[in-house]
């Protein structure tokens, strides 16, 4: 009986420690997430400036980046992807089509469906935009190699959706 009570006490203690660790880990995760959001918000103008440099809106930049040179997308697929009304897609595609960056095509299997494809000029511009967006900001260049390796490891883990490894955060 004494052993049984001792075991239940140890179980309650272990559960209490686990709950505290869980709350601490949740608070730490929240702080890390807010720090990431703050960093992204502080750098949001980077994409607007880049888009403007190429005579695009941020929405136009997003449109180009959504298109694959080898696989046109239907207007409906773009509206679904962006969670917007099809009329918004039409407006954006119209603007890019005026600049010869995209073209509308009929779907071979269903002529009622319009797809959007990058033109050669659109492919070139998307490549330039991708190169520029992939250039790290000065704040990243100022980090140590060790910090960059840690950041990359964590980001790869988040991107892959991998389960956490190791003990929970204290």
- In CATH, the homologous superfamily of the largest domain goes by the name Winged helix-like DNA-binding domain superfamily/Winged helix DNA-binding domain
**Radius of gyration, rounded?**
25 Å
Largest sheet: 3 strands, antiparallel
Element string (H = helix, E = strand)? HHHEHHEEHHH
Mean pLDDT: 87
CATH architecture of the largest domain: Orthogonal Bundle
Question: Order of strands across the widest beta sheet?
Answer: 1-3-2
N-to-C CA distance: 33 Å
CATH topology of the largest domain: Arc Repressor Mutant, subunit A
Number of helices: 8
Helix fraction, binned, reads: 55-70%
How many domains, as an integer?
A: 2
The oligomeric state is single chain
Which blocks of ≥5 consecutive residues have pLDDT under 50?
none
Helix vs. strand class: mainly alpha
The share of residues in extended strands comes to 5-15%
What general form does the structure show? elongated
CATH class of the largest domain: Mainly Alpha
Strands, count: 3
């Amino acid at each position: 009986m004494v052993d049984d009570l001792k075991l239940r006490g140890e179980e309650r203690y272990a559960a209490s420690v686990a709950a505290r660790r869980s709350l601490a880990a949740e608070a730490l995760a929240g702080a890390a997430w807010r720090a990431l959001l703050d960093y992204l918000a502080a750098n949001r103008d980077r994409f607007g400036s880049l888009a403007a440099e190429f005579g695009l809106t941020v929405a136009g930049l997003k449109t180009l980046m959504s298109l694959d040179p080898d696989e046109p997308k239907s207007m409906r697929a773009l509206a679904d992807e962006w969670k917007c009304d099809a009329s918004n897609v039409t407006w954006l595609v119209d603007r890019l089509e005026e600049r010869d960056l995209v073209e509308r095509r009929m779907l071979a299997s269903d002529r009622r469906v319009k797809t959007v494809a990058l033109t050669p000029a659109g492919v070139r511009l998307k490549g330039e935009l991708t190169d520029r967006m992939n250039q790290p900001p000065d704040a990243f260049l100022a980090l140590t190699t060790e910090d960059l390796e840690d950041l990359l490891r964590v980001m790869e883990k988040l991107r892959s959706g991998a389960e956490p490894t190791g003990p929970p955060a204290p």
